[in-house]
Design brief:
- There is one protein chain.
- With 1490 residues, this protein is an alpha/beta fold.
- 28% of the residues lie in helices and 22% in strands.
- It is elongated, with a radius of gyration of 41 Å.
- It contains 40 helices and 64 strands.
- Helix 6 crosses helix 7, helix 7 packs across helix 8 and helix 24 crosses helix 25.
Length: 1490
């Protein structure tokens, strides 16, 4: 240890200090702390024990304020350089900020953040895969989103004994599982655990009050902190500058000056232009400038005609399009326009058709009525051309005539021609463009009088003299570069050496060399130019700046320019630069020059600087270096007010009251030099150019209006102006104000040079959830690794949090050279913001921190003690609301003459049909080509079923009651096998066959159903039998444990001795197994009575008769799909046209073609089929029409589903196929679930389905509030078809089980003869599930036995009447209770969050959400390029915050098709969750929101 500091042996140290020192050493060796931070901390630890180590000052040791090594090794302090009179010590130098940042970071070192994971192929060859954060495995991680920790919903707790997940879990033997059965040894879950750890940090203090969004959810309003600093000074007075000297030597106008110098001093140099090698390409003399300007004026006025009329009239606006390397032609054009009484509008050269901000420039030109653009020959050749060879029309630009003004194109005026230009008075002299914070461009109109006054004021303030030389590095087309380098210089016959941006990029020292070569007296630079020259000056010995009397720093108003000024002065003082020469100034387009520092010989006071508390500044108060030593901002003055001007500081918002002396406000100027207006914009002109500041009493401070400058600052001692930021960079977060430049400076202090480019950082705010959120975007160096960049980002977040006490909402790194650039370097902020919001920024790294930033979320909902069921009924009665109960038509009154009604058993019906109508066709199966591959008449089906039954009894030796798994592709073999089982008394279980290309995930489900259903035999085809026993199958399941497998392809024709007749209708007919969307495998028992009741209800509802044809495109394995495919035709006698959904993959139009071909009045499909048709055929309706597809035959097209109706899909389907004759009202939805597969079906009679709009926020609170269509937060719900005959429905409270009133949200309970009789379980544990199938109301009608559907919904009585003449009750399904997410005490339906996310960006193909440990995880399928993936992270987070008041914990971006979907088109969110946590998704990017 001794080598790092002084010998410590002399002072014995206590054990805890030794321990702390050892910890420090370790941190340093692991890179968790910088050398400087280490030495600082070490010095602090040792300060008490070695008070006078080697004579160092103890106070310095305690504070260790100095930058550089700690004083433990350095007995001699760094010698202080002589400074302008008022600096106190090195502490106030600008590099204190870097030290502050390092100290702030040291506080955070122990907090590890989870690093986002990125697929190797995406974006960068990163080492992200190798980076595994320490796994911190909690068996059940804490609830981090609410302080409630309440139990999950009672309904969710119901165990599912028969449940195996549909897909096995990888390596489940060795996996530690959480309560939810989720593996936790994965990389993903350890990262989530880290994320939880970062979120355990105490939030900001709780906030008290709200403003009412409405009574559902109240956004918290930031309350003013009682301890916040308040301004205590007296009210400021208006500050007046020295009077503008009315010198007789000054010419009466600028053009008079030009004429005077052009005729009396024609050889005097006016302007020298340089090329990129630094050579002078051209020196324009005053004589040349005068003669060329005259030629141009003459040409403009006399030679431009159209139809013998002059093209231009005095006062017309003309665009000046000149590159930054050609000041000569620009100056000629500018003065030529003034001489011709035209108004020049200088703009940037458009390089491409889509330059950043180019469209806005077009709007400006259009609003100014510009029709002519002046340019040079070379520039015109470089502009993008259209096919015709003309200059292309740029996006948003008006049509322009381009005029090249090189000498050969101009006409010499006659000797006697003199321009009649009047360049005095209020007429507009020129228009300068200005881009606002939002990116809109306005034109600032400067009058002739202002122009002259500005030149006079600058001459007086800067002491310009005739024939002085000025080096100008700025853009000469606008701002200070134009005012000094083109206007004031001509008035004083000065010589300007113009250094182009292109030369500065090649040789940053060029301007210093030119100052030295031309012995320039003044130089005009930006702090960036000073910074660049510092980096390049090392080898230069022979430059001298002793000739300079003024170095004008044009962006001196940026508080951070001080560091460049200080560093520049330090280095170049030895090269003859005098400290008093540095003159920062403050400018703005509206007021032109606001203030400029003057050297002492021009009467300027000594320069000053202020060290201000950042905390105070954020409240708009000036506090000089308070206790918080870290968060300070050092600013320098920008000198005195301009001659002839008055300045005051007013409050930023509301009435322009004068500020107090210790308050920051907007600087306002009253001066003859200020601009006149925003061209053509009267409204904002009034608010900016005609402000009337008032005193506290409300009295105006002056009878003249003031101009707002957009600069934030205050007036300091000696009447010096200080600027602390710009209104454009102001971000109001909560109640506090932060400046974008300050945030940039803090980010730069975190060792930026290694990872990002210094000059390419953009900070702006976006509004999310009614507050500004800070976004920081930087360009990443190509050689920075993923891990380095991520570490840098984490440190930037911590530094900003510590120094500014504000959270950064999003930090994004983009690849080098991809941010939109401003014309002369720098980042185009508004364009960057626009790209961020539109999701086209394409970052390569993103870090979102919504948890720390968003502090105005509504309070989590507290569960109120529930009102009892009896009180609810009484409450509904008092409110005049009926109990929400409805039923379909009564079955007993529906006399059915059909013979089939006498049969309670389907096998009997089939035999009867085979006997009475043997040749009547029942089934017809189509293949992808539309060919009929097989048919079955009544007798054919009967005979096939007999064969199967014979095989089961003889080959498989099965007795009645045995369970048989039917593993068939969709077709007639499945139907024959089903009836074969019934004929011999076996219980069939239909199972979807495994997918040959995807055995690993589909075969385990088959195996599981076969095992759970205790099947004694598997009936299948030869091909599937081979697949079940194949090597590939053996790799996934144990193929030796299959029960007997029979293939029914070649079974002998045998007649069955006798057909089994069940002893009672309640005997089990078949088992219906299905995997729910939550991944639960549940089988239900269907008795013979329920089966025939189901068929009878469907027959009555859909009016199915033997003469009808019904087209079915559904999976035949479970639920209503199975019933329609296998049961209904046999019962009702109609012909079913079967279209297997897999066939649509090779021919999308097959189903619609079949409906048209067979003139089906009734057709059934699934959402996935409907989606395939909408996507695949949407653009091909004309082609289908030519092929003869006509859907006008369809009376009703029903979508079979167990979910909330997908309105958007059904409506778009109806619209798309309207052209093929599909009736507008044909499409409807059905509703069924595990306890009853068919509760609602639209059918052929009855009123059309109704749609209502409900408030999504009320739904989260389990309430229904009906709103108008189009109102905010409205969600359309359509009824799920009509309730089937014999079915009764009631809405019950999910917890108290009491009945609810009309239009109240609760669980849908159902009672009907075709309810399933219970879950089928291996262990016979029906007791646990009794509640599902035999629930009773806790109050009211307590006798009826109901089945609980597990779905939330409500009943609403409509104005329509049904067939019986009663008013129609509509049932609206909201969603499955099992799927709902309980977050922040509220109930969310995944589909609502997913709908918002899908709307967020066009590249989102699909989305699924789930929760884990109360973190919301959003999985997004990207339909686009991998490098665009990260655009989605911020947009997804924004939209979920805005619309659902939820903070997304993890955003996972995956390829299309990763989100698993079942045969009904429903998302399998729990499978997805398991896959994510087991790290099986191969995501493109995983972002962990802090």
């Amino acid at each position: 240890m001794a080598e790092r500091g002084c010998p410590l042996e002399a002072v014995p140290l206590p054990a805890e200090v030794r321990e702390s020192l050892a910890e420090l050493e370790l941190e340093l060796s692991e890179g968790d702390i910088t050398q400087k931070g280490y030495e600082k901390k070490r010095a602090k630890l040792l300060a008490r024990y070695a008070p006078l180590i080697q004579g160092a000052d103890p106070s310095l040791q305690a504070e260790s304020r100095l930058p550089g090594p700690a004083p433990s090794t350095a007995p001699t302090l760094r010698p202080q350089k002589p400074r302008p009179s008022n600096t106190r010590d090195e502490r106030f130098r600008s590099d204190v900020h870097t030290e502050a940042v390092q100290a702030a970071l040291a506080k955070y070192r122990e907090r590890k953040m989870p690093m986002p994971s990125k697929r190797r192929s995406a974006l960068a060859p990163a080492s992200a895969e190798a980076y595994t954060p320490p796994a911190d495995l909690h068996a059940d991680p804490p609830d981090v989103t609410t302080g409630l920790g309440q139990p999950r919903h009672a309904y969710r707790e119901r165990p599912q004994p028969a449940s195996g997940r549909g897909a096995p879990r990888a390596g489940s033997g060795s996996v530690l599982e959480t309560a939810g059965g989720v593996p936790v040894n994965s990389r993903v879950s350890s990262k989530i655990q880290q994320l939880l750890n970062t979120l355990k940090r105490p939030k900001r203090p709780p906030l008290k009050e709200f403003f009412v969004d409405d009574f559902e959810e109240l956004l918290e309003v930031q309350q003013p902190d009682p301890n916040q600093p308040k301004p205590e000074g007296s009210q400021m007075a208006v500050l007046k500058g020295e009077p503008l000297a009315a010198s007789t030597a000054w010419p009466p106008s600028l053009l008079a000056a030009l004429r005077q110098w052009g005729t009396t001093q024609p050889r005097a140099p006016c302007l020298t232009a340089l090329d990129t090698a630094g050579k002078a390409t051209c020196t324009l003399t005053y004589g040349k400038l005068w003669s060329r300007s005259l030629k141009l004026a003459y040409t403009l006025l006399n030679k431009l005609t159209s139809k013998n009329e002059r093209l231009l009239k005095p006062g017309d606006r003309v665009a000046l399009v000149f590159p930054n390397s050609d000041p000569v032609m620009f100056t000629v054009a500018f003065y030529g326009c003034l001489l011709a009484e035209l108004v020049p509008v200088p703009i940037e050269v458009p390089l491409t058709r889509k330059d950043a901000g180019s469209q806005q420039i077009g709007f400006l030109l259009g609003s100014c009525g510009v029709a002519l653009a002046l340019t040079t020959d070379a520039c015109q050749k470089g502009l993008p051309k259209a096919q015709t060879g003309e200059v292309a029309t740029f996006k948003g630009w008006p049509p322009l005539t381009w005029l090249v003004i090189d000498g050969k194109h101009l006409t010499k005026p006659p000797k006697d021609w003199h321009p009649s230009a009047q360049d005095v008075g209020a007429g507009t002299a020129y228009i300068e463009y200005k881009t606002s914070k939002e990116g809109s461009t306005v034109g600032v109109a400067v009058s002739h009088a202002s122009l002259l006054a500005q030149c006079q004021a600058l001459t007086q303030a800067c002491g310009y003299a005739e024939a002085e030389t000025l080096t100008n590095v700025l853009d000469f087309k606008r701002d200070a570069g134009l005012w000094h380098g083109v206007l004031t210089s001509v008035m004083n016959r000065m010589h300007v050496v113009s250094v182009p941006y292109a030369l500065m990029k090649v040789n940053p020292l060029s301007w210093i060399q030119k100052v030295c070569a031309y012995k320039a007296r003044a130089a005009l630079v930006k702090s960036r130019d000073m910074h660049w020259s510092l980096l390049a000056q090392r080898g230069q010995r022979d430059v001298s700046l002793s000739s300079l009397r003024m170095l004008i720093v044009a962006d001196g108003a940026n508080p951070w320019s001080i560091s460049s000024c200080d560093a520049f002065l330090d280095v170049f003082r030895s090269r003859g630069l005098r400290p008093e020469v540095v003159c920062p100034c403050a400018t703005c387009p509206e007021a032109l020059t606001v203030a400029i520092r003057r050297p002492p010989d021009l009467g300027g006071p000594p320069p000053r600087r202020a060290v201000l508390s950042m905390g105070g500044l954020s409240h708009g108060v000036i506090r000089v270096d308070a206790e918080e030593k870290l968060s300070v901002l050092t600013v320098q003055d920008v000198g005195q007010v301009m001659p002839g001007a008055s300045v005051c500081v007013v409050k930023v918002e509301g009435t322009p009251y004068l500020c107090k002396t210790d308050e920051v406000g907007e600087i306002c100027v009253d001066s003859s030099t200020a601009a006149a207006a925003y061209y053509g914009l009267l409204g904002i002109t009034k608010s900016v150019f005609e402000t009337v500041p008032v005193t506290v009493a409300g009295a105006p401070v002056s009878d003249r209006p003031f101009t707002r400058t957009g600069l934030l600052g205050f007036i300091g001692p000696d009447d010096l102006v200080f600027v602390v930021g710009k209104l454009d960079g102001l971000m109001v977060v909560g109640a506090r104000r932060h400046n974008a430049d300050d945030i940039v400076a803090t980010a730069l202090a975190v060792e930026p040079m290694k990872f990002v480019y210094r000059g390419r950082i953009a900070v702006f705010s976006v509004t999310v959830l009614r507050d500004d959120r800070i976004v920081l975007v930087a360009e990443q160096r190509p050689d920075a690794s993923e891990e380095d960049s991520f570490q840098w980002m984490s440190r930037v977040l911590q530094a900003i949090d510590s120094i500014h006490q504000v959270g950064v909402y999003c930090l994004a790194l983009v690849p080098a050279n991809t941010l939109p650039k401003a014309p002369l370097g720098g980042i185009h902020i508004s364009e960057t913001k626009q790209r961020f919001l539109e999701g086209v920024l394409h970052p390569c790294n993103v870090l979102m921190c919504p948890h720390t930033c968003v502090t105005n979320l509504p309070k989590p909902r507290q569960k109120q003690p529930e009102v009892g069921p009896a009180s609810m009924i009484v409450g509904n009665l008092v409110a005049g609301k009926r109990i929400a109960q409805a039923s379909g038509r009564e079955l007993t009154h529906l006399e059915d003459s059909d013979q089939a009604r006498k049969f309670l058993f389907l096998p009997d019906v089939l035999q009867w049909r085979a006997h009475t109508t043997p040749e009547h066709p029942l089934f017809l199966l189509l293949n992808a080509k539309g060919t009929v591959t097989s048919t079955a008449t009544c007798v054919q089906l009967h005979k096939r079923a007999e064969r199967v039954a014979a095989a089961l009894t003889e080959k498989a030796r099965l007795s009645a009651g045995a369970h048989v798994a039917l593993v068939y592709p969709p077709g007639l073999e499945l139907i024959a096998a089903f009836y074969g089982c019934l004929y011999c008394g076996c219980v069939p279980v239909t199972v979807r066959p495994p997918h040959p290309q995807n055995l690993a995930t589909t075969l385990p489900t088959v195996k599981m159903i076969v095992e759970v259903s205790t099947s004694a035999c598997v009936l299948t085809t030869q091909a599937i039998m081979r697949l079940l026993r194949s090597k590939e199958a053996a790799a996934t399941v144990d193929v030796r444990t299959w029960p007997t497998i029979l293939d029914t392809d070649d079974i002998p024709k045998k007649k069955l001795g006798s057909i089994f007749r069940p002893p009672s209708p309640d005997v089990l007919a078949y088992l219906d197994f299905s995997v729910s969307t939550t991944g639960i495998l549940a089988g239900v028992k269907m008795s013979h009575a329920a089966t025939s009741a189901l068929c009878r209800s469907i027959k009555l509802q859909c009016e199915l008769y033997p003469s009808r044809q019904v087209a079915i495109c559904l999976d035949p394995y479970c639920g209503l799909g199975f019933a329609l495919w296998c049961l209904c035709s046999v019962y009702s006698g109609h012909q079913s046209v079967l279209v297997p959904p897999p066939e649509l993959e090779s021919n999308v139009s097959l189903w619609l073609w079949a409906v048209s071909q067979y003139k089906a009045r009734v057709t059934f499909c699934s959402y996935s089929v409907m989606e395939m048709c909408a996507r695949g055929l949407g653009a091909q309706t004309a082609v289908l029409r030519t092929k003869g597809v006509n859907l006008s035959c369809v009376r009703t097209c029903m979508v079979v589903a167990e979910e909330r109706p997908r309105i958007a899909l059904t409506q778009s389907f109806s619209k798309l196929f309207r052209d093929l004759g599909l009736p507008a009202r044909a499409v409807s939805t059905t509703f069924g679930c595990r306890v009853n597969v068919a509760i609602c079906l639209q059918g052929t009679a009855g009123p059309d389905p109704t749609t209502v709009y409900v408030d999504t926020r009320a739904l989260r609170h389990d309430r229904v509030r009906l709103v108008e269509r189009g109102s905010p937060h409205s969600l359309p719900l359509t009824e799920s078809g009509k309730i089937l005959p014999g079915v009764k429905v009631i809405i019950a409270h999910t917890e108290t089980k009491g009945p609810l009133g009309d239009s109240h949200l609760g669980e849908i309970w159902v009672s009907s003869p075709h309810n399933a009789t219970g879950y089928y379980t291996v262990y016979g544990e029906e007791g646990l599930q009794a509640d599902h199938f035999s629930a009773r109301l806790s109050f009211g009608d307590t006798q009826t036995v109901w089945a609980r559907t597990g779905f939330l919904g409500f009943l609403r009585r409509t104005e329509l009447t049904d067939a019986s003449g009663e008013r129609h009750d509509a049932l609206y399904v909201v969603g499955s209770l099992d799927e709902t997410l309980e977050l922040r005490g509220m109930r969310y339906h995944p589909i609502d969050i997913e709908a918002s996310v899908i709307r967020a960006h066009r590249s989102v193909a699909e989305c699924a959400v789930f929760t884990w440990t109360n973190l919301l995880v959003v999985v997004v399928e990207l339909d686009g390029l991998e490098q665009d993936a990260l655009d989605l992270v911020a947009l997804v987070t924004n939209v979920v915050l805005e619309e659902h008041h939820l903070v997304v914990g993890v955003v996972v971006i995956v390829d299309p098709g990763v989100i698993p979907i079942n045969s009904r088109g429903e998302k399998q969110r729990m499978h997805l969750r398991d896959g994510f946590l087991a790290d099986q998704l191969d995501p493109i990017y995983v972002a962990y929101n802090m």
